[in-house]
Design brief:
Layout lengths: L1 H11 L3 E8 L5 H11 L3 E6 L5 H11 L4 E5 L10 H6 L7 E6 L6 H18 L10 E5 L15 H11 L4 E6 L14 H20 L18 E5 L1 H10 L3
Parallel strand pairs: 1-2, 4-6
Antiparallel strand pairs: 1-7, 3-5, 3-7, 4-5
Length: 248
């Protein structure tokens, strides 16, 4: 995935970085990333001493990014980082976020059913207008985080992100992306305990964002000390140069 992200970023700019957040992995991930960083100067590895959760890993990744555009995806190879080029073609001066949506979901049947139920339920509860809430393949402007402050450490951070981005009146376009069978690791979500915990997290988030609307009262920038599983960022200079030349 790291190599794929590097190759994809090179197709849109020569000014990029790849940030990988190692969320307290207990296997050989740290050693592999150390070797990769020796071969790839654009790679920056951020370590969590202990597992903090998916949302915390994303927040760390976003806070660690230094370029004007931030692209993120997961490190389990269910998305092809080379499709960043397709998202980049949709990033015009009028757009703040390009949201990928899965053409087809390549998961076991029970995960597809649960995923669809989740998708339609949260779209209704939170009034979301995107086609795919939980597609972790997004390209966004770094300036979004001047208006959107993320707080969640669990997987509901994707729901939090899209609701807050929409309520901040950020301009969103969508692009189709492919979804593949999981190549690395196993999902920690699809068990009864995690599902119940997620339902409680969704309920609390609904109270905060829909009923109380706490996020609309005070706008805070994303703290620089806190915080994708994997991400690549590109510079505003490159975007401006692309617009001047008419390149996509």
């Amino acid at each position: 995935m790291v190599i794929g992200a590097v190759l994809a970023a090179r197709q849109v700019t020569d000014d990029f970085e790849v940030v990988v957040v190692n969320d307290g992995s207990r296997d050989a991930t740290a050693e592999v990333l150390e070797e990769l960083s020796q071969m790839c100067p654009a790679l920056r590895v951020v370590e969590h001493a202990a597992n903090r959760g998916y949302g915390a890993a994303l927040r760390t990744g976003f806070a660690s990014a230094t370029k004007e555009f931030v692209f993120y995806t997961d490190g389990d190879a269910q998305y092809d980082p080379r499709e960043l080029v397709d998202l980049w073609s949709h990033m015009t001066p009028e757009v703040d976020l390009v949201n990928g949506y899965k053409i087809n979901r390549s998961d076991p049947l029970h995960r597809i059913v649960i995923g669809r139920l989740y998708h339609h339920t949260v779209k209704l509860l939170f009034g979301l207008r995107v086609r795919d809430v939980d597609c972790d393949f997004r390209l966004m402007r770094r300036s979004i985080f001047e208006r959107v402050h993320l707080e969640k450490s669990s997987g509901v951070i994707c729901l939090e992100l899209m609701k807050k981005v929409q309520d901040a009146r950020c301009r969103i376009v969508e692009a189709p992306v492919h979804h593949f069978h999981r190549a690395y690791g196993t999902s920690q979500f699809f068990n009864v305990r995690r599902i119940v915990r997620t339902l409680f997290d969704i309920l609390k988030l609904w109270v905060e964002l829909v009923w109380r609307k706490t996020h609309t009262a005070t706008k805070k920038p994303l703290p620089r000390t806190e915080g994708t599983a994997e991400g690549a960022a590109v510079s505003q200079e490159t975007a401006d140069r692309r617009q001047e030349t008419g390149d996509t």
